[in-house]
Design brief:
The chain is an alpha/beta fold. The protein is built from four helices and seven strands. It has one domain: Rossmann fold (3-Layer(aba) Sandwich). The model has no long low-confidence stretch (mean pLDDT about 95). Bound molecules: adenosine-5'-diphosphate and magnesium ion.
């Protein structure tokens, strides 16, 4: 478990960038954190680390935004997803073997998701962002183990 304190959006992006550099194809990042915590901001840093030049925006309306850098990044919003059937319906599983990193906001909607994704082929990370002030955040990064 790693704990970080961020005092600006730029710092959050930097923390994400450093973390993102060690990610491998198939890895999954499952975010927990309220609206405005900084999940999309964190994903911007991840994208830079993966060599994505496009601007990362919230996947709220698209459900998933796909970015193609040195390694693909699939950025999901699971806000309206409440069960595994929903997850299958949006094709989430199809992305597991597409050679990219998956980052999913609102993963807390499906509590069993983290364990379900641990299949020995990928590393699953939980990234929990807590708003502790206007510009301060506590960021906990944990590798999910079965
Ligand atoms: N330390 C910080 N880390 C991340 N975002 C921050 C921080 N301080 C302020 N912010 C602002 O908070 C907002 C976070 O929004 P966003 O990343 O879209 O959150 P989420 O995806 O969790 O809803 C942005 O407007 C960002 O500029
Ligand atoms: Mg967001």
């Amino acid at each position: 478990m790693s704990e970080f304190i961020s005092n600006s959006a730029e710092e959050t992006e930097k923390i994400a960038y450093d973390f993102g550099e060690k990610l491998m194809a198939g890895d999954i990042i499952l975010y927990k954190g309220d609206l405005g915590a900084g999940k999309t901001t964190f994903t911007k840093g991840l994208a830079k680390a993966l060599g994505v030049d496009d601007t990362v925006t919230s996947p709220t309306f698209a459900l998933v935004n796909e970015y193609y850098g040195k390694m693909p990044l699939f950025h999901f919003d699971l806000y309206r997803i409440v069960c595994f059937d929903d997850l299958y319906a949006i094709g989430f599983l199809d992305y597991l073997d597409r050679g990219g990193v998956i980052a999913a906001e609102w993963s807390e909607n499906i509590p069993a998701l983290a364990e379900e994704m641990c299949d020995g082929k990928r590393t699953v990370y939980s990234v929990c962002i807590e708003k502790t002030g206007d510009e301060s955040r506590k960021i906990l990064i944990d590798e999910v183990q079965l």
